[in-house]
Write a structure and sequence with these properties.
Blueprint (H helix, E strand, L loop, with lengths): L1 H5 L2 H9 L14 H22 L7 H11 L4 H4 L5 H20 L14 H14 L9 E4 L3 H4 L5 H8 L4 E4 L1 H15 L2 H15 L2 H14 L14 H13 L2 H10 L4 H6 L9 H13 L10 H7 L13 H10 L7 H13 L9 H15 L12 H8 L2 H15 L8 H5 L1
Parallel strand pairs: 1-2
Helix pairs in contact: 3-20, 3-21, 6-20, 6-22, 16-18, 17-18
Organism: Octopus bimaculoides (California two-spotted octopus)
Protein name: HAT C-terminal dimerisation domain-containing protein
Amino acid sequence: MLLAHKNTAKYKKAFDCAKPAIKLDSFIVKNTDDTLNEKGAKADLLLTGYVAEHHIPFIHINHLAEVYQKTFSDSEIAKNLQMKKTKLTYITQDGFAHHEWNEMKSWKFSRNKIENGSSQGVYDAVKSTLTKEDVSMSNILGFASDNYSTLMGNKSGFQKLLINDIPIVFTTGCVCHSFAFCSSHAVKVLPSYLESFLKGLTSYFSRSSKRQNDFNMIQSVAGTKEDKISKLSQTRWLSRENVINVIIEQWDALVLYFQSEAKSIIPLASDFPVIAPENTPEEQNDEWRLFRQYKDIPACSKSIPEFWYSIRNLKDGLDRSKLERLSQFITNLTVLPHSSVCMESIFSQVNCTKTKFPNRLKAETITDRLLAKQAITRKGASCISWEPNAKLIKDVVDGSCHRRYTRRLNFKKAGVNEDDVDIYEIDN
């Protein structure tokens, strides 16, 4: 009966009237140009990030975009890719570096071009930078550098000039360089039987795999880390450190010795008056004793600064921090400089940037290229996993990067220092 009703003229007429209406959004034409422009801008930014991270000379980008266009001929993004050396330059300097510099203003300083390389010249440049940024010299807690006399000289070096202005500032030479010299010379003044002991011990194990296996079994029974005792080398000082570390790990008596030396924290606090809380040595010492006896501190995988900061959350019955002063002091200790490894890393990056192609780069150009790389690496990403933020994409799409680039060129041609111009008023 139902099938028969389906074939009647009355049903067919009613069915045609009940067909769904055309949706309203079908009349709206979507603007695909904006989406395509944003995708193209993202491609430009990713290419720029790749060049910055791997220190590739800018001149190579001229042909790379054309290769992409031929390789990915079916891609609309590749067809519209117009990346040349000039565009790569202003995206790096007026896109990446511009935004990274704005973020850095509140937490880090860039390098200044120093005309006079003497101790006084370097010190004057640092003071000038701090004054320009309205930062008081008294905010300096510590200074670390390599052991070059210009920086660490006791009579006229940078550290001496700094101490003259800030008597309680903490200064130190680079421990990495210092240890290299100390390790090679210190063994010469030690009793000769100590060196003979190390050589005999390492030779005893390095020449016999059976002895090494037997020693590993003893380490397993004792519950210590199974470190292999390598042969002592005279040319690599780190090998001596490794041997000594293994011996120390097996020497339980030394653990008791260091624990006995750590009964009071007052001597340590007195060495760092610049960061120790004022008039609280006894309170710190009481908290140190309490900390050593505390058995409820949970084990965690936090970094050293995070751990010492977290212990201030331990409360007493009145909801007061039990270890606040101790936490504050030890956390402050972690911010003191201890080496110049970070600067050595930057020097290495500069050497990678200055290949035989771009061998005469300006200081500003090198700074901007390093900032572009830092914008990616400080987020824990690489040029593959990094995602451009909305501000960068917008700057490329609406031409803000190019306008800043053109403005810099005009200032340069006119002999005007960009720092003397109110850029905010120009942009608005």
